[in-house]
């Protein structure tokens, strides 16, 4: 990557980030927003520092994953709110990995909260605001031509590797990784590449000592201020990553 990447036109404003083109067609300029949404964007609140915190957490996690052989779209974090990433064609699926029952799994099956699974559970959701991101199974993905069987297998393989590494990192931080959501894109060469973000917005995290939520559930359930909670996650993550010399 050259040091001369310049921000160009706004391509997309999402619920948590804005994506801009750059002078390099293969590089996107991502701005993390000080904004939290719930109910698929129907509830929206400004939260000071949230964008900075998520950008830094996501940066440290992407760098750690790359250092552990899990390639991803991260290129650089040039400033507090900005990340440079490899532009990919997003696959419109949310890949969810669960280590214990919570959220929609708990509701759907009346499962006991935080019951641990012997093996991780993997689910796909079809990314569509109009349809409210419905659950989608493998044959539905194939029927809708959202992804090929090969791509599905590759997303699952990478998702389980991400789960192994994230579970280890968070355990070192005194945190249980209950579940998380990731997204993949396709490079021009046909490589399935981990993209988007990994932050407390997209992970369900529980403090191993206190049982407190350390993620967006604090906002969803109105449990208090989000920023100090995300700051706590960042502080613990930075300590673990400094020990491994992964941070810059
Ligand atoms: P949402 O679209 O769900 O509101 P965001 O606010 O996080 O979410 O917006 C970021 C958008 O950018 C998402 O649509 C995501 O799929 C997309 N995206 C993430 N990483 C990349 C990438 N490397 N290349 C292209 N698009 C990306
Ligand atoms: N998730 C996400 N974005 C979404 C939906 C879910 O990042 O649009 C994450 C969520 O934070 C959790 C995991 O995916 O870590 C599983 O979410 P679940 O299906 O349990 O839904 P929820 O009850 O959180 O809406």
What are the defining features of this structure?
binds adenosine-5'-diphosphate; 2 domains; alpha+beta; binds uridine-5'-diphosphate; 31% helix; 6 helices; 7-stranded antiparallel beta sheet; 5-stranded antiparallel beta sheet; D-amino Acid Aminotransferase, Chain A, domain 1; Phosphorylase Kinase, domain 1
Offer a concise description of the structure.
The protein is α+β, with helices and mostly antiparallel strands and 248 residues long. The protein has 2 domains: 2-88, 2-Layer Sandwich (Phosphorylase Kinase, domain 1); 90-232, D-amino Acid Aminotransferase, Chain A, domain 1, CATH 3.30.470.
Draw up the topology in text.
Blueprint: E1 7-13, E2 17-22, E3 27-32, E4 35-38, E5 43-46, H1 50-67, E6 74-79, E7 82-86, E8 89-90, E9 93-100, H2 103-109, E10 116-126, E11 135-136, H3 138-143, H4 149-172, E12 175-186, E13 192-195, E14 203-207, H5 217-220, H6 226-243
Antiparallel strand pairs: 1-2, 2-3, 3-7, 4-5, 6-7, 8-12, 9-10, 9-12, 10-11, 12-13, 12-14
Helix pairs in contact: 1-6
Bound molecules: adenosine-5'-diphosphate and uridine-5'-diphosphate.
Structural class designation: alpha+beta
Mean pLDDT: 96
Largest sheet: 7 strands, antiparallel
Query: SSE order in H/E notation?
Result: EEEEEHEEEEHEEHHEEEHH
What share of residues is helical?
25-40%
Whole-number total of structural domains: 2
CATH class bucket of the largest domain? Alpha Beta
Q: So, the CATH homologous superfamily of the largest domain?
A: ATP-grasp fold, B domain
Low-confidence stretches: none
Structural Rg: 17 Å
Say which molecules are bound, naming each kind only once: adenosine-5'-diphosphate, uridine-5'-diphosphate
């Amino acid at each position: 990557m050259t040091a001369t990447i310049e921000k160009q036109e706004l391509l997309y404003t999402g619920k948590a980030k804005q994506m801009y083109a750059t002078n390099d067609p293969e590089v996107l300029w991502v701005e993390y927003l000080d904004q939290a949404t719930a109910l698929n964007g129907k509830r929206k609140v400004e939260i000071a520092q949230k964008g900075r915190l998520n950008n830094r957490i996501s940066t440290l996690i992407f760098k750690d994953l790359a250092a552990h052989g899990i390639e991803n779209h991260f290129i650089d974090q040039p400033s507090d709110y900005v990340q440079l990433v490899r532009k990919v064609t997003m696959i419109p699926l949310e890949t969810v990995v669960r280590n214990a029952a919570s959220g929609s799994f708990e509701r759907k099956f009346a499962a006991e909260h935080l019951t641990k699974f012997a093996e991780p559970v993997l689910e796909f959701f079809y990314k569509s605001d109009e349809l409210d991101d419905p659950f989608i199974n493998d044959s539905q993905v194939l029927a809708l031509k959202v992804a090929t069987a090969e791509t599905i297998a590759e997303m699952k393989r990478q998702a389980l590797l991400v789960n192994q590494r994230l579970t280890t990192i968070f355990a070192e931080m005194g945190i249980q990784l209950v579940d998380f959501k990731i997204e993949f894109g396709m490079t021009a060469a046909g490589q399935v590449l981990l993209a988007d973000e990994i932050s407390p917005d997209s992970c369900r995290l529980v403090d191993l000592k206190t049982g407190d939520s350390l993620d967006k559930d604090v906002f969803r359930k109105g449990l208090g201020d989000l920023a100090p909670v995300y700051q706590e996650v960042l502080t613990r993550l930075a300590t673990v990553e400094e020990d491994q010399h992964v941070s810059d």
